[in-house]
Queue: 2 jobs
Job 1
Amino acid sequence: MTSDKPIIIDCLQYCNWSREIFEEMKAGGVTAVHVTICYHEQFRETIQNMERWNRWFQEHGDLIVPGRSAGDVRRAHEDGKTAIIFGFQNCSPMEDDIGLVEILHQLGARFMQLSYNNQSLLATGCYEAEDPGITRFGKQAIREMNRVGMVIDMSHSAQRSTLEAIDLSERPIAITHANPAFWHTALRNKSDEVLKALGESGGMLGFSLYPFHLNGHSNCRLDDFCDMIARTADLMGLDNIGIGTDLVQGQPDSIVEWMRNGRWSLETDYGEGSKDNAGWPGPLAWFEGNRDFGNIAEGLKARGFTEPEVDNVMGLNWLRFFETSFGPQD
Amino acid sequence: MTSDKPIIIDCLQYCNWSREIFEEMKAGGVTAVHVTICYHEQFRETIQNMERWNRWFQEHGDLIVPGRSAGDVRRAHEDGKTAIIFGFQNCSPMEDDIGLVEILHQLGARFMQLSYNNQSLLATGCYEAEDPGITRFGKQAIREMNRVGMVIDMSHSAQRSTLEAIDLSERPIAITHANPAFWHTALRNKSDEVLKALGESGGMLGFSLYPFHLNGHSNCRLDDFCDMIARTADLMGLDNIGIGTDLVQGQPDSIVEWMRNGRWSLETDYGEGSKDNAGWPGPLAWFEGNRDFGNIAEGLKARGFTEPEVDNVMGLNWLRFFETSFGPQD
């Protein structure tokens, strides 16, 4: 029993999963992780990825459990395990078939991005020149995701689509991994307008630790990061923020190539990198992996957050969001 | 609340589903039905069939509910609804992929036949000339079905494969819809050897009302049918028998053609029929559909079954079997 420890929830990772990483989660006291199980995969390929997780749940049941509800997360906390919550960075697993939203939810998916950098069937990605907003199919998908309890994630979507998703969705949405553009300008970071609308609608922002989203990139300072969190809390509310590190551990460069190029690009797309800087960015000194969440909590305390406020940002805000988001609509 | 009515469970139907039929189930007091959602469909096609059911559960939630556990069946009984239990008449939905067993179970499948008339990747069907028994893949599939709680159904399988499945399976199996060959000789009916082994292993037989499986076909008499049930109870035990009508309502002849020919046959296969008798057999006078289960119960009483014995055959035996069969292995 480790239930006296704080609840730590990371609302995005996409590591090269292994027992070693699951052990690091335990060592770091990580209660729940939203794991990416698809970038460009279609339905059948996503099922294959779920099958792999089903085997990991069997083989490493002493460390990880499926996370499909806030209750699963609480039980994981009591048992000193990590709840694994499935999410998609793109809508490709539902293909052109609205009925797959419920099927994928039945199989444990709890987050789906409506678009990943590019235009999708549902919405526009943040790398497109034009953003015509949520599509006809997208409006139906939002209603269906609302109905079954799959969270709309707009981390990689463009601004108009994001504002429309916030408006159209009858339930609060999430931006699981991004930072405010006021702190660091990047296509992936979000404007004050988006963050305010997100906070006012009861949605959640997860702060990213991916160096391309950070002021100073891999040299970003912890105190600067925590100051940004404090300023974002002023903008969108202390209850609407959490962590979504975008942590990658142990992935080969072929994965970042897959993320950026999928099957759609004949020319190499370098995403947030460049031809001379095509691979993964270097790690932060104060956050290398799942053992280091304590550093963030310490940084927040040093910035003046109270202990209950730190607990909210490190996990309890996400837990409350899961509570009202993962089940069927009332 | 209709919980004073008996629990009636039909362990196989494959009707042309509609609100009208769901209303007939309610009128007939049918507590649960194992419905066929696949004959030859591959994984993606089976998902499509599940999607259709998901919509029916939404549209007709006042009449039907998903049946994934004995608890679901009991709740349906209390609420005066019918629990719908998904099953496959073939192993085609799992394709060549052992991981799909768990995925399909997560989506609600609770019965899977290892073969449908023909040789499959797992076992031999009852129309093949040779039966080499359970295959290498079949042995692994049986273990996996045991692990997750998907019932092995050998209704359309050949004798050696069936005996081996009973032996290899660590959990009791089912023959959801067939009759004893001692009463009516048919490729689909089962020998004393199979029925005895089934009963001794704690497995279940569901008595079929499909005319091709009946003595006298569509002219079969109710008293003869009930006498056959009494003789089968003597052979395999009163706790190991139930109903599995194989009821078809409102299906066009194209469905019986699909069942018999799938995509595998260039020549037309007539299955249990013939070229001159290619369509559905005519109905029985005393069992035309879901309103008529009371006739069977009356017939059993007339044959000398006590009231508790009738309740067991009409539903409680299946309910107890569901209780120990649908969850993960201990």
Note: Chain A is about 40% helix and 15% strand.
Job 2
Amino acid sequence: MKIPRDDRRSTDSLRALQTPCLLLDEQRMDGNIARLRARLAAAGVGFRPHLKTAKSIEVARRLITGANGPAAVSTLREAEEFASAGITDLTYAVGISPCKLPRVQSIRKGGVALTVLLDSLEQAEAVAVASDPADPIPVLIELDCDGHRSGVKPGDSELLLAIARRLGPSACLRGVLTHAGESYEAESAAALRAAAENERASAVTAAQMLRAHGHACPVVSVGSTPTAHFAESYEGVTEVRAGAFVFFDLVQAGIGVCAENDIALSVLTTVIGHQREKGWTVIDAGWMALSCDRGTAGQPVDQGYGVVCDMAGRPIPGLVVVNANQEHGIVALRADARAGAPELPVGTRLRILPSHACATAAQHDRYHVIGAGGGDATAEWPRFTGW
Amino acid sequence: MKIPRDDRRSTDSLRALQTPCLLLDEQRMDGNIARLRARLAAAGVGFRPHLKTAKSIEVARRLITGANGPAAVSTLREAEEFASAGITDLTYAVGISPCKLPRVQSIRKGGVALTVLLDSLEQAEAVAVASDPADPIPVLIELDCDGHRSGVKPGDSELLLAIARRLGPSACLRGVLTHAGESYEAESAAALRAAAENERASAVTAAQMLRAHGHACPVVSVGSTPTAHFAESYEGVTEVRAGAFVFFDLVQAGIGVCAENDIALSVLTTVIGHQREKGWTVIDAGWMALSCDRGTAGQPVDQGYGVVCDMAGRPIPGLVVVNANQEHGIVALRADARAGAPELPVGTRLRILPSHACATAAQHDRYHVIGAGGGDATAEWPRFTGW
């Protein structure tokens, strides 16, 4: 493969980095954000980006639509980190455990509008007991719209009403929330549209039932990256959540939610060896840099631990990371590859597109940002981990 | 299940921790270290523990047999971190890329006896050029004893001698190194013994060939956690490397290298919900806390994302983490479970044994140490990540 002259600049810039490391293509990220924002704005629905994928103040500032949010988080650590940067309109979108309520209250006392999520009477009881009636903890009831994991069945009016009653006046029922997690298994655009409509209808139906029984229920929150990009109606929905779309990944490309060239993250790596009789090229990015995620294993095209690109970010046809140890990746052609593999001498730098952006990003403590002007990877944006 | 009174103390101590977090059972770790040390001492062979699993100064000090090592590392970051703590006899056991040689030289100039690994003429050329003849970089040639990943075929005398010649006087050929990575796929004690003997014979044969051609080759380094525990002879071997054994995990238990109750790591988690009609208990440890590693998927007993234990660390029969999202784990009975699942109310604390200790530990920034006296998790040992 010939590298056009325009790419030489970025080649030089990236060559100075120690490998493996995480690259973020700012232009692609900005495009992904602009696309979803425009889609939701046209539909007249609110946008509450999920910050769990990025875990970065710099990325969060580009995602949020207001000065202080809104946003969703997956850990209280995220709530604390983003709140310290002024992002204070937050939903902690994982079912609350009673032992975390003192920390929730401490965060709220710092001026953070932190809403919690629950799907059981035990949790409602704990929140009601922990709540200060002068400043009740805002609560969303989680709905299980598609059997993916947590939540009350949307038609289980008895449990929904019992939770609402148990919260009582000392906590503040704000509404319902659901996540179409099964949309990641969709195999067609029609299936994605159906998943989105099911997500919407489940949430709206439950909210209407609660309202009919005297509960205000102002918030109807839905979202997943696939459904956010395929929903045809948001009637009755007040906000959409999505997170992985900011970077996208091979799993999303595999279900048709993005194109491979929308993927904004890649892992920069260096060739350290070969087993030529097997067609293997060995790189210095193993699962520690790529993550163990094998999300495309069940898709029509198994992309292994990631798609191999040249330094300019262009996929090398058919070449993937077929296996990964801690600090070794094995690059080889997919079984269905039609082209031969190029010679990649020791020292060659490559970029690996991630199977699952959330998991790959989590293995790194910073993003090396390739600016929207193209070429230079000069900025470093820190990211945090932990709970 | 009834919790004996003796366990109540640890129950109280662990209840104060935020979940999810990583627990380290010091007594089990010490037992694992003592067992392998005694085995290798009885065989009269040297021990070079691999520090990539622990990435902790405190654990490293218990692993090493001398004041400054010896030890193996998988990244230059590990070399720098451990060297700063006085552990300076180090082998960087991943094939060297030429772009890392300036950093290797910088580390060596700080007084670290850092040895590098290679398996090609290109690397030998780069090391020879980078080496200071007054202080040549010590080199081991990597051998591929079982087709696992990197290395020269042990019988490829032509390439081995060409590498040795190319290194010449400006670098210092110290010997050969091999890793029986395929031993993780062994299905019997006999297969493990055979893998260990093949590992030994491959390394010794290559070293003898090099010596016969005038290369001193004082180091013959072998090792993997499975073979280190099953080798019957170390004749001709000078040192054994192993890393994962310090904590052990379900993959190692699955191939019979340890018992489940040797596993020294676990992830402390809290129950946050249920889908009772499916037999699901939802916990606040997803793949972010457990890792995406599914290493037992190909073993006779698939332990999912980990085995579920009570607060005292006792496995609950048949209960595993069957699925994991970023911050949610789904606990359910294995298909082959004979006992029913106990009721685990919201707020219940559980401990999850890791599928792969290296991968699970990498998701955390510290160990909460349950002291050898039992009971209290008072100490925190930091661990580092990155390259």
Note: Chain B touches chain A through 63 residues (CB under 8 Å).
